[in-house]
Task: structure prediction
Amino acid sequence: MEKELWSYLKTAQKPIVLYGMGNGADKIIRALEHYEIKFQGVFASDGFVRNKLFHGFTISSYNELREKFGQMIVLLCFGSSIPDVIENIKKIASEQELYAPEVAVI
Result:
């Protein structure tokens, strides 16, 4: 099933962006590189947006990337059980295509 996601992403017409940074994002970026899929931005939850770089991208907010791209494919790069975070993920998923790719934990 996951290979089908990567195949879909390789031919997708919408820009692909990452939600989150850290180990999960590093692993998803390695998978994107393996399948020769480009992504065009990285965003974090509003409380985590800082003026810093991650893999050459300035960390943006969701709203900044939504204004820049309009419709996009969001790859969720972290897990959480915090209710506010889950609600934010649901909100984003109601507005955009959102996927949580399965990547190896180690």
Residues 83-95 form the longest helix (13 residues). Residues 81 and 87 are 10 Å apart (CA to CA).
